[in-house]
Design a protein that fits this description.
The protein has 9 helices and 13 strands. The protein has about 350 residues and is of the alpha/beta class.
Amino acid sequence: MPVPKSARILGAAAALALVAVGLPAAAQAAPDAGPEQQESFTFGVIGDVPYGAAQIARFPQMVSELNTHDELRFVTHLGDIKAGSAQYTDEYFAAIKAQFDRFEAPLVYTPGDNEWVDCHRVNNGSYNPLERLDKLRSMFFATPGKTLGGNMPVKSQAEQGLPENVTFDQQRVAFSVVNVQGSNNSLLPWSGLGLTEPTAEQLAEVESRDAADVAQIQRTFADAKRTNARAVVVMMQADMFDPYMLGQGAAEKPELVSGFRPVVKALAEGAREFGGQVYLFNGDSHVYNDDAPMATGSPWLGIYGQDSVPNLRRVTVQGAATSNEWLRVTVRPNADTASEQLSWERVPYSG
C-alpha cells in the first residue's frame, strides 16, 4: 500500500467479538451424510507474521505451539512473512521456508505483497518484484499440488504459472486460495526503482494473474453449486475492503482500489449464483475484523459497482509485530445445514 501498514493499526480499533450473526443457508438441503462426514473439523488461520526481529525470533515457538493442536486439519497463512520495511533476501526466504516445513498439519500458504510486490522499495533492497515472485514460487511451491508442512493434496494452477493458487474440498465445504495482492493488487509504480508509472511487464503480470484468479473463483462457485456444497471459503492476502482506504477517500476515488475490481466482481457474482454461505478470509490490514462488506448500504457497493451480496461474510486476521494470536475456525457437522457453517475464535499464543 502507498503508506506503511503500521499507520492503519494506529488508526483502527480491533473488534473483540468472536462470532457474529448468521447468514442465509444454502437454497437446497444437503443430502444425508455418512457418520464420518457428519463430524465437525477445525483449521487454523494466521497472516502477516513474522514481523520484526522479536517476532522472527519467536516464530519457531509459534509454529511449535500450533503443532500441539492436534485438532487442526490444516493451517493457512494469508501472506506477508516479513515487515514492509525489511529486506527479502534469499537467506530470509530459506529461513521462513524451514519453519513452514516444520508444520505438522498441512500448511496452505498464499503470498503477500511484502514478499514481492513491494520489494522495489529502497529499504527492501530495490529488487525487481517479478524476480522475487519467481524466486518465491521456486522455493515455496516447488511441488505443485502439495501443501507445505504435512501433506494434503490440493489442485493448483501450476499449468497457468500460478502454483500458489489452490482449491480443495473438506466435507462439502469448497476452499479456494488465490494470489490477490495489497498495493492495489500490484498496480502501484515501482518507485524504489525510480519509476513513476507501472511497467509493461508489471501490467502483464497483473492481467495474467487476475485472469487466473477470476477463473479459479468462477470454477470454485460453479463446482460448489453443482455438488450442493454447504459453503464456499475464499482466502487471499489483500484486504479489498480495507477500512483505511475508505478513510483515504476510496468512495470518491475508486481508482485507489481499482486493481481489485475483477476479483470483487467474480466473488460477488459467484456468491449470488451459489446462494449459500460464503466466507472470505484475508490479511493485509493487520486489525481483526468480522463484517459483511457487500451488504445492503455498504459504501463498497458503489466503489466496486456491485449490487448487494448478503451471503458474503469477511474476516481479517490480526497480524504484524504486535499480534500474538491465531484464528481457530470450526466447521459445523455436515448434517447441520440450517445454521452458520463456520465459527471462529481468536486464540492467544501462550508465550
